[in-house]
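Can't attach files on this board, so I'm pasting raw text. These are the components:
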Amino acid sequence: MGRWEPDARGRLMAAAVELFLERGYDATTVADIADRAGLTERTFFRHYGDKREVLFAGPVDVHDVLRTGVVTSTRPGVAPLTLVAGALDAVCALLQGDRERSRRRQQVIDAHDVLRERELIKLAAMADTIAQALRGQGVADPAASLAAEAGLAAFKVGWEQWMTDDSGGRDLTDHVRGCLDGLVGLAGGSPAPQSPTQAQATTKTRTQPVKDSPPPRGPPRVSPTHERPDATTASVVVLGLGPAGRSVTHLLARAGVDVVAVDTAPDRPWRPTYAAWHDELPAWLPPTVVSTTSPARAFATSEHELARRYCVLDTVGLQQHLSLGGARVVAARVLDADAHRVHLDDGTALTADLVVDARGSRPDPTLAQQTAIGVVLPRSSAPMLEQTWFMDWRRDNGTGPGDPPSFLYVVPLDDEHVLVEETCLVGRPALGFDELRRRLHTRLAARGIRLTGDEREEHVRFAVEAPAAPADPTTPTSTARMPGGRRPTTLRLGARGGLMHPATGYSVALALDVAERVATAVADGTTTASDLEALVWPRPARRVQALRAIGLTTLLRLPADGVAQFFEAFFRLPTALQRGYLTDRDHPALTLASMASMAARLPPSLTKIAVTSALPALPSTASVTRRRVR
Ligand SMILES: Cc1cc2nc3c(=O)[nH]c(=O)nc-3n(C[C@H](O)[C@H](O)[C@H](O)COP(=O)(O)OP(=O)(O)OC[C@H]3O[C@@H](n4cnc5c(N)ncnc54)[C@H](O)[C@@H]3O)c2cc1C
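---
Top answer:
Structure tokens for the assembled complex are below.
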């Protein structure tokens, strides 16, 4: 696992604009563009449908930005044109980063009728989106359509001014705002006030500090819509916009639920390269968020071809797909949160029917961690990089049998690039980056791959255990944290909620799956907070988690020279049993069968470790044993 910054899209765009200006739009082919960018045509078509799209498909969906801009500018009594200004501010902030590049693109468009026509269609679509968003905020027609069209006219003129303004004193936002104010002046009105988005020049918003108000009364039903007395009240508040928080926010907003999402950096691009077994991905995810899918291999003490297909997600594509349109997004640090109340570092107190905590795992040295160092290499560097290696425990990394082991992980990022990582699966403490880097370089050299030193290096460090929350039923990562009868505080999701596999560190596919179940239940309108807890942690899943935690304890107790034998036993299991331990949460008996079957294949000294690791957890798993095994 690791992170990777794909730049194929940007390179293709730069190459296309260069060629369009050099040779003309008509004379430039997709093959020319791919060639100039140093990529293949296949890669081109993974990013763009045709050469025209290169000029019009930005890295972020402009319609999402417009919708978010309208929603985050909404305040009681605000004029429709002020909401339009907020939406346009957000788009300007997105587009004004590189004026020279925008100018070159505009030069190409201006020179071709077909492209000019496409540009006009794009502007018309933006006006439609704004009008729709205004209607969503209760602005009736014709005011919604008129305000949207007027806003787009101001945007168009402001854009043209910005393209020709070489003074450098005014950015795109200033020009568009100036045009909008001028437009209002023409009608004899006063200019639209500064919106919060203009103040911040981003799509984020900070709510104003208000006095604490009491939590909602009545039965703990999660109402999908809310009579909002002010901007600090919502049906659902989601804390954290990593994969877990963003997916649930996206799905809630899409279902029309009144949701506020809080993150210290809501717009920060995700960096890690997320991967999962293909059969773990929920059906609601479009295939476009998957970057590569391949058969995987493993090497413990012998080589294994794994039956399940492994996929690497397109991190950028996934984050974009999980758009936040329709949600109110707050950029702030959460100080503390309980079932209905959240305190932010700007003094704001948010209240909600439901608070979802998806703030990820805490950097806590007492928790078992996974660490890795990776490099991104051209796939053509060596034949071994043509294959996906889920785990390769061979000791050609300069270590001896007594050294704590680490394994090689190799996954294709796209047609041309591979992520190669030296990984410490779990440790308390885990191996450090210097040691992992040394091992990776030694291993690659042993396999004929010399690094130049210019490779992008990827760092991985995260806790595989959830932060301790004694007696909190939403984090059953060990028997000590199993249900204790206390009423839950927040609904915890993702790594925060113990939804990470404690023995492998995987959580993303499950987070996406659980997000859909939670969002559907909340949108239904009859769900209570405890229904949701049961949905995230059905009884079988709690038992499975307790069993998986035994796997973690075993791994942490294995002698260094026993780890490869342990995984040899695992990879010799039938696929259904491998899946039973890695993925299944519905059948504790299957998880147990997988572990028992594996223990039976281990040498006696390792079987003893596996069995004694299970002893402290037996009370919580006994019912499974009684019913299914005896
Ligand atoms: C480099 C790397 C690679 C990984 N690869 C994989 C993989 O291939 N497959 C897999 O399943 N898992 C992988 N993992 C493990 C794990 O699934 C990820 O860490 C995943 O990001 C967890 O998602 P999450 O949404 O639960 O938490 P996070 O992604 O950690 O998101 C938490 C969010 O909460 C915000 N936040 C935190 N504290 C506060 C606060 N006080 N106030 C406001 N906001 C706050 C953060 O800004 C962040 O946006 C990887 C982890 C790393 C680090």
